[in-house]
Write a structure and sequence with these properties.
CATH superfamily of the largest domain: Aldolase class I
Strand order of the largest sheet: 3-4-6-7-8-9-10-11
Strand content: 5-15%
Number of strands: 11
Low-confidence stretches: none
Helix content: 40-55%
CATH class of the largest domain: Alpha Beta
Shape: globular
Order of helices and strands: EEEHEEHHEHEHHEHEHEHEHHHHHH
CATH architecture of the largest domain: Alpha-Beta Barrel
CATH topology of the largest domain: TIM Barrel
Number of domains: 2
Distance between the termini: 41 Å
Largest sheet: 8 strands, parallel, barrel
Oligomer: single chain
């Protein structure tokens, strides 16, 4: 059983990885229904949280059913990260997660996320300071290193543990790789099998099926896994992964009717959460996931991403469901 602080994460937690403008509360709650064990919020900017910016505070909202859940914060200034951890703690999550792995240029250029992999002493110092700033357990999400010449995660993980970090999630790519190429799990395994490590080690990168999830668990011995891009518009991935991990069976793929039913639920939840305008904009990156593998979907995708209202979206979905070729 994986336990962090006072919270049980399950025997082998399958975690929804945080993704900006994707893993908000509506989507997290749906993933929970399909078997995700642990949630982490979209990353929250420390500076925005200190200023009480609406976008930052909204990202910390969650439903009780989403627990266990962590609020992930990022930033370049240690004092700001400490204050942000205090503010995030007031929302009563189960843990605070530190983003030391986001490779996106706008985050890195500000000194946050994976930028800290170029200044390991600062990363470790920041982690220790945040640990002292909150009574909640603090975890961290990292990458293998900055680039191929600096894949220093085995040493980094030890030092984060020594600073008080209670669990570490490792994406099997460097910052320079972004999301290209293939995730390398060998160093994730090296961290887990380091005799000095005694905190949970979670692996992340390229988990897109139940078969892949069990392979990574069995080969590298990690304590749990994170699923990110494979879950976008595809909450059923958690049902598949949990089933295959537990009994080696793959459930049937969701029918078109089930896909549309859950997409409608997602839309409704999102409108309640952030309003129709934001929903229409942010869901544009989600539709492909809901209809992946469905022949002839492309013309409907164009209609969906250009739709001007929720009512129009509903009509398009009804049209898709009515077509016999989609059954």
């Amino acid at each position: 059983m994986v336990r962090i602080g006072e919270t049980d994460f399950g025997e082998f937690p399958v975690i929804l990885a945080p993704m900006e403008d994707v893993t908000d509360s509506p989507f997290r709650s749906i993933c929970k229904d399909f078997g995700a064990d642990v949630m982490i919020t979209e990353f929250v900017a420390a500076e925005g949280l200190i200023r009480d910016a609406l976008k930052s505070t909204m990202k910390m909202r969650f439903e009780a059913k989403e627990r266990p859940i962590g609020i992930q914060i990022f930033g370049a200034n240690t004092d700001s990260m400490m204050k942000a951890a205090e503010a995030a703690s007031a929302a009563y999550p189960d843990f605070i997660d530190l983003n030391f792995g986001c490779p996106v240029r706008k985050i890195v250029m500000k000194g946050g996320g994976a930028a800290l992999m170029q200044d390991i002493p600062k990363m470790i110092s920041m982690a220790g300071a945040v640990v002292k700033a909150t009574k909640l357990p603090v975890t961290a999400k990292t990458r293998l290193g900055w680039d191929e010449k600096h894949r220093e995660i085995v040493d980094i993980a030890e030092r984060l543990q020594d600073a008080g970090i209670r669990a570490i999630s490792i994406h099997g790519r460097t910052r320079i790789q972004l999301y290209g190429g293939k995730a390398d799990w060998t160093l994730i395994g090296a961290v887990k099998n380091n005799p000095r490590m005694h905190i949970p080690v979670f692996g992340n990168g390229d988990i897109d099926s139940g078969i892949k999830a069990r392979e990574m668990r069995d080969r590298y011995g990690v304590d749990g896994i994170l699923i990110g891009r494979a879950a976008v518009g595809n909450p059923w991935i958690f049902r598949e992964v949990k089933s295959f991990l537990e009994n080696g069976s793959l459930p049937p793929a969701p029918s078109v009717s089930e896909r549309i039913k859950i997409l409608r639920l997602h839309l409704v939840k999102s409108v309640v959460y952030k309003g129709e305008r934001a929903t229409l904009f942010e869901m544009r990156k989600i539709y492909n996931g809901y209809f992946k593998g469905i022949a002839g979907f492309r013309p409907f995708r164009i209609k969906l991403v250009t739709a001007a209202s929720l009512e129009e979206i509903g009509s398009i979905l009804a049209e898709i469901e009515a077509l016999q070729s989609f059954v």
